[in-house]
Structure formats: C-alpha cells, structure tokens
Specification:
The structure holds two protein chains of two kinds.
Chain A: E1 2-7, E2 10-14, H1 16-36, H2 39-62, H3 69-95, H4 120-133, H5 164-173, H6 175-182, H7 186-190, H8 196-224, H9 229-255, H10 265-268, H11 273-283, H12 291-296, H13 303-308, H14 317-331, H15 340-353, H16 358-362, E3 381-385, E4 388-391
Antiparallel strand pairs in A: 1-2, 1-3, 3-4
Chain B: H1 2-12, H2 18-24, E1 34-41, E2 47-54, E3 66-73, E4 76-82, E5 95-100, H3 106-114, E6 120-127, E7 139-145, H4 149-161, E8 167-173, H5 183-192, E9 196-201, H6 203-206, H7 212-218, E10 226-230, H8 233-245, E11 252-255, E12 272-275, E13 280-283, H9 289-295, E14 313-323, E15 329-330, E16 335-338, E17 342-350
Parallel strand pairs in B: 7-8, 7-10, 8-9, 10-11, 12-17
Antiparallel strand pairs in B: 1-2, 1-6, 2-5, 3-4, 3-6, 12-13, 14-15, 14-16, 14-17
The chains are: A mainly alpha, B alpha/beta.
The complex binds FE2/S2 (inorganic) cluster.
FE2/S2 (inorganic) cluster (FES) binds at residues 302-305, 307-312, 338, 340 of chain B.
C-alpha cells in the first residue's frame, strides 16, 4: 500500500517499507508500556473509582436538600460528574480490557457493568469489536453515522438526511438510549439484512439492564427522598442528560471533525499490521485540553492513541501522545487535534452540510448558503493500493 | 435483612455493594470473602506461618482441603492454593497456614517479605476432594513430604480433636528436623496418644527413603487402612508404585501440589491442548489457540482476531501459553486469556 498525503509542501508518498516502519515503532511503544504496567496504574484507576463513588454519594445526599435550588444544582453537578467518570474513564476503559491484567474480578472486562442503560456485553460487541477492528470502513464500522446520521460524504444522500441536524440533536439528548439500541442494527432490519429473531436476546438484555437503571434513578432514589420525589427525579434526569450531552460531544469529536478519513472495504482488504495502525491514525482525532479535561473525557480526548492501543490503560495515553505525534510528524501524517470548541464546531458544521444534497452544494446556489453550510475543501488525503489510486479523502 | 440487601443492591446498581464497601473498609464485605493476617511466624527457615481471621462468609473446611489466597503484587492480584493446618473442629474463626518459601515462588516470597499483622488478603472458600471421609476409617495412614505436611496435619489434628481411637501413623519426610514445621506439636501429640505414632524420616541423612519394607515396618496394617498422601513428585511416585504393586490403589488418596512456576522452552510447541468444556483435544502446532480450537471443530466466540476486542477471552485451566504479541510466557492456572493471541506451549487445558 502506498499512502499519498497532500501536505503544505505538496503530496507525500509513504512507501510500504515506511508503513511497516511505523508499525514496528508503534509495536515497540506498546511493548514498552505493557512492560511498565503496575502499581501506579492500579492506584490511578482506584483513585478515579474513589472519586466517582464520592461524587455519587455526595450527589445522592444533596438531593435531600433539593428544595433549595443551590443544593439541587450542586447535587446535579456531583451526580453528573459521577456518571461521566463512571461511563468514560472507568466503564469505557475497563470494558476495553484495559485493566484485565490486574486480575481484579471487579475490574474485569468480562463482567464489568457501567451506570448506563446499554448492557455491557452488547456495547462490547458493537464498540470493541465492530468499531475498533473496522474503524471508519464504510459498510463495516457502524459508528459512521450510527445507522441514523449522514456524517461522511461516502454515505449516499437521500431525502431522509434533510433531518440530519434533528437526528443528531435527538441522539445527543438521548445518547445512552441510542448507544443501547446501536447493537440492534435497526436499519439493517428495515433493509431486510437482519431478522427479528436475532433481536430477541438483545432486547431481553436491554430490558433487564435499562429496567434496573430506570428503577434506580427514577423510582428508588426519588422515593427515598419522600416529599422531594419530583425534585430528585428531575435532578437524576438532569444528571443523565448532562452525561449524555457530554459523552456525545466527546465521542463525536473522536472521528467526525474535518480532516479525518474514511475507507472502503477494498482499500483495507488484507491489511498489514502497519497499514492497520495508519488507518487508525488517519481515522481518529484528538481534543487538546488540561489533565482534568482528559480525565473527564475518559481520555477519549486521546482518541488517536486509544485507537492505536485500545487495550492499554487510558491513563497512559497522555504519556505516549508526544511520541505518537512525533512519529506522525516524522512521516508527514496528519495528527488531527484541537480544542473542544474547534473540534465540536467542525462536527456540527459537517452534520448541517451533509444534510443537504451534494447537488445543492455543487450548484451556483451554493454561494447563497451561510458559510458553515458551504462545502469545505477536502483534506486531500489519497490512499493508493496496488498502484491504482482511489479517492478516499474527506 | 434480605429485603434491605435487595434495596441496597438496587441503589448501587450496576455495581455490587462490595465495590463500595471495600473502599471504606476492606473487611466489611457483603459477598466477597477476605481475611486479615493476625500473626506471622518466620521461625522455621524457608517457611512462613500465618494466622488469618476470615470475614463472616467463611464457613469452614473439611480436614485436608485447600483454599485460595490472593495478594496484590506490582498491581496484579495473584491467587495461590494453600492447605490450612487447622483441625476442622477449630471454632476460633481462625485459619493457620504454613507455606514453604519457594526461591521462584512469587506469592510465597512476597508473603515472606511483606506479610505483617493487619494486612488484608483475598480468600476463596475451601475446596478439594482430598479430605477425610465423613465415616472415619478404622485405621489411618498419613504420608507427607516437605510442605505436603499441611493437609495431613489438618487431618491429624482433626482426628485428635475427635478423640479418634483407631490406629494412626503419621509418616513425614524432610531434609532435616529443623525444617519440619510444627515439629514440637507433633511430638506432643504422639506422646499424649498411644494410638498415634509419628515417624520422621530424613532420607538425605539417614538414607531411608520410602519402600515396601518401610511401609510394613511403620504400618503393618496398611492394607486395611485408608492412606492419605501429599508430597513432592518423587515421593508420590514411590508410594503409588508400592500401592499399585499391592493392588491397593483405591485405598490411597493423594493431593498433588503443582509447582507454580513452570520452566518451559518457548520454542517448544509439542504437547496437547485439551478443550475441557467440550472434551476435545488437539495436538499443538504453534498456531493461536483460537485457530487451533477452530481446527479441532470448535466454534469459540471471537471478534477482531488480533487481540483488541477481548471477545475470545476464555479460561486457561492449566498449562503454559505464549503471548504471540509479546512472546511472554504465562502459566498461572485458572486465568482468563485471549485465545487469538496466545499459543500453547506444552500441554494446556482451555475451558471451552
Ligand atoms: S478475537 Fe478479539 S481479542 Fe481475540
């Protein structure tokens, strides 16, 4: 495989040898981190768990003073932080098997469950397997638009997509429910690619898991605050909403800002290890920020590092990021990163742009569109395989 | 109580209650069992004796059984099997362990260096079929070597507590008297009970290994007795030979203690992999265990086939495997491993 990247100084060619060299460098980096795992990583994850439990207990407790608005707000804030930590820095990472090496039954990817309506085993299938193995491959990675959105030009437009921003907004608000339904692949049922009988066990699991979550947040805890039932109910619902909006925003910044690349099945057939790594780097994007911001995003702000090494403890990503970045620079590969505002802004711009039929954007009408809806210049990344160039740029 | 626990469980869902309690006080658990070390004795060279107080979930053991103890070393929790030396009638809610410190034994060395009163360890319930039968036999012969003394000492103490009146012979092999744990107690038991004989042998000093003549000398009635044997492999072998020669194999009950470190050559791929849950076996060919299982007609769950999704995780019951990505060898029993990036080295048992 040869990779051509349009850079400031013109096109860049990566020879197959160079790709393999990148692969070796990353394998070596991984081995170094694995050899160094130990007490420090254990302390880190337990510190995060302690913090999460602390915020949770504080949040639940503050709801007893929920009749006073400042306390209600503080309770919602504490509970939101607790849920964000639980889902992102703890749940997402533990269920990736990042802490399996600790042999701690409570932190093992096979049994761990998170504070989210989506059952862990279904999420592990759609995320760890489908998404991480086939990152950004059209037709394989169902995270490209989640079967609901048009988020990449490689998806054919149809009138349904006029509602793109609405779907995106609803997905943001009800994110945990969207994540739960993801593994059902409902769009494939509509298309007749999947039968209802495949769904039975999945739906059963979802009812079980979401039932318990709903019972806890919307019945048991509100009842325990007696006359404050409604205020606690509203508080818990708000905390879930805050977590949804936050998780959605961070996750959408991981693969959908401008500059990330998607691939076709032909391009990626029979990939070498080095090519797999390069695809992960071209298909993900980081968010820059403070250490606290990285923790609150579950280190998914280091999406590039996460996609290269999904099973390494996330607290190591900040440490290896400079090396990954230097490697990208050495070979002229883009290292897509930027502050949250810039990344999320470009995601939303894309959601709006792609709602419109490509015809409109290419027509003379285009100049009357607001700037954010105008077609952006593509990043010019071309992937060549077997000497026959195919456009795969964004 | 149960209703209250259910309510608490609803409130902490999806995390088990213990995941909260352990952060406050590790010994305050609802389901998980733990133990606190209450005393440590290093007076016998190469051996460490620990007394533990288990949490209330502990529901006792049958003399001869083992339990698993877990400690965290460099961030990793390691479990090892040990046989308590307690009588099964010990009502003190206390477990006494005596373990030999292996030069390469990760856990025993760690405990030797770091165990101190107050330290908390993980505990799994007692298990194992090596124990005295409920209906006590008329005569009992206990044979042990080295640290194999622990389960049979538990049996002896149990019989003493019961005022057992049949004949008991306790035959133990060691390198020297100083290396025998609980030496004084054994002598006391023998002195106080005419029906109990304690025989110590130091083959390196007195040249008396185990053979048929020795067996006849110490327990002429061995053919009518039930014999319980635990010790290093050479001793186990000679006793087994004598018993099978006398056609008494079913009166001989044994407990292997497998050394925790397996020295293997990573280049060696010979051996057989047993997929124990499906009763299928396959000759090793150096391929990943996932491919090997599929080659043998099994359909284990998988996803990425490259070690990132953890769909193929299954338990390695025993044997050694090599990580195809790092080349590292691992041989801890009962560990979950990723089949797609592990290959068998020597005989391996995988639970699929
Ligand atoms: S199949 Fe994905 S880790 Fe083995």
């Amino acid at each position: 495989m040869t990779i051509l990247t349009e850079t400031k100084d013109g096109p860049l060619v990566l020879s197959p040898d160079q790709v393999e060299e990148i692969g070796r460098a990353l394998d070596e980096l991984r081995a170094r981190v694995v050899a160094d795992l130990g007490e420090r990583d254990r302390e880190y994850i337990y510190d995060i768990i302690k913090a999460q439990r602390g915020f949770e207990i504080a949040g639940r407790g503050l709801m007893y003073l929920g009749f006073l608005p400042p306390f209600w707000l503080a309770g919602v804030a504490a509970l939101s932080v607790s849920k964000i930590l639980d889902n992102m820095e703890i749940g997402h990472n533990v269920m990736h098997g990042q802490y399996d090496w600790m042999r701690e039954p409570g932190l093992n990817s096979r049994v761990f469950e998170w504070d989210n309506v989506c059952p862990g085993d279904q999420w592990k299938h759609s995320h760890n397997y489908m998404h991480h193995t086939y990152t950004n491959i059209h037709g394989r990675d169902r995270d490209i638009g989640y079967g609901v959105l048009r988020i990449d030009e490689g998806q054919d437009w149809n009138p349904y997509y006029l509602g793109n921003p609405v779907y995106a907004f609803l997905l943001m608000v009800f994110f945990e429910w969207g994540v739960m339904l993801h593994d059902l692949e409902a769009d494939n049922i509509v298309k007749g690619k999947r039968s209802w009988s495949d769904l039975k066990p999945l739906i059963k699991g979802q009812l079980r898991k979401s039932g318990r979550q709903v019972l806890k947040d919307y019945v048991a805890f509100p009842l325990l605050t007696g006359p404050l039932f409604l205020s606690t109910l509203a508080g818990n619902a708000t905390a879930n909403l805050v977590r949804n909006v936050w998780a959605y925003s961070i996750i959408f910044c991981g693969h959908f800002p401008s500059g990330v690349q998607t691939f076709t099945e032909e391009e990626t057939a029979e990939e070498t290890r080095g090519e797999w790594y390069v695809r992960q780097m071209l298909g993900s994007a980081n968010i820059s920020g403070s250490p606290l911001f990285h923790i609150m995003s579950g280190n998914l702000s280091h999406q590039i590092e996460h996609h290269l090494f999904p099973d390494l403890p996330a607290n190591r990503y900040p440490q290896i990021a400079p090396e990954v970045r230097a490697l990208c620079e050495k070979f002229g590969l883009p290292y897509n990163t930027g502050p949250l505002g810039k990344q999320i802004g470009s995601v939303w711009a894309k959601i709006f742009q792609l709602a419109l039929p490509p015809r409109v954007q290419e027509s003379r009408l285009a100049k009357f569109l607001p700037a954010a809806l105008r077609k952006q210049p593509t990043s010019g990344v071309i992937v060549m395989r077997q000497q026959s160039p195919t456009e795969a740029g964004v | 109580m149960v209703a209250l626990l259910d309510l608490v469980q609803t409130l902490t869902t999806p995390h088990p209650v213990d995941r909260y309690l352990e952060l406050v006080r590790p010994m305050l658990t609802v389901r998980d069992m733990r133990a606190r070390i209450i005393s440590v004795d290093r007076s016998v060279p190469g051996t460490i004796s620990l007394s533990l107080r288990p949490t209330r979930q502990w529901d006792g053991l049958r003399a001869g059984q083992f339990l698993q103890l877990g400690v965290v070393i460099e961030g990793v929790r390691h479990l090892r099997c040990y046989s308590p030396v307690n009588s099964q009638h010990d009502r003190r809610r206390r477990l006494d362990l005596t373990l030999r410190v292996h030069p390469h034994g990760l856990v025993s060395r760690y405990l030797h260096e770091h165990a101190r009163p107050g330290m908390i360890v993980d505990l799994e319930p007692a298990s194992g079929v090596f124990h005295l039968p409920d209906h006590r036999p008329a005569r009992v012969l206990l044979i042990s070597g080295g640290s194999g003394i622990t389960p049979v000492l538990s049996m002896l103490r149990t019989l003493v507590d019961e005022g057992y009146s049949g004949d008991v012979v306790f035959l133990h092999y060691a390198r020297s008297p100083e290396l025998v744990p609980h030496h004084a107690e054994l002598a006391e038991i023998a002195a106080a009970h005419p029906n109990i004989a304690v025989e110590m042998r130091y083959p390196e000093r007195d040249g008396r290994g185990f053979d048929h003549d020795e067996l006849v000398r110490v327990a002429p009635w061995f053919a009518e007795a039930q014999t319980y044997l635990c010790g290093p492999p050479p001793l186990m072998e000679s006793v087994r030979d004598v018993y099978s020669g006398a056609d008494l194999s079913e009166r001989l009950h044994t407990e292997e203690f497998v050394a925790s470190t397996v020295a293997v050559d990573s280049a060696e791929v010979d051996g057989t992999t047993t997929f124990s849950a499906s009763g299928v076996t396959a000759e090793n060919a150096g391929a990943s265990l996932l491919e090997q299982a599929e080659g043998a007609g099994l359909r284990p769950e998988f996803g990425c086939r490259m070690g990132i999704c953890f769909s193929c995780t299954s338990v390695r019951r025993s044997g050694c495997t090599r990580n195809l990505r790092t080349g590292e060898l691992e041989a801890d029993p009962d560990q979950p491993i990723q089949l797609c990036v592990q290959a068998a080295v020597g005989d391996v048992d995988i639970e699929i």
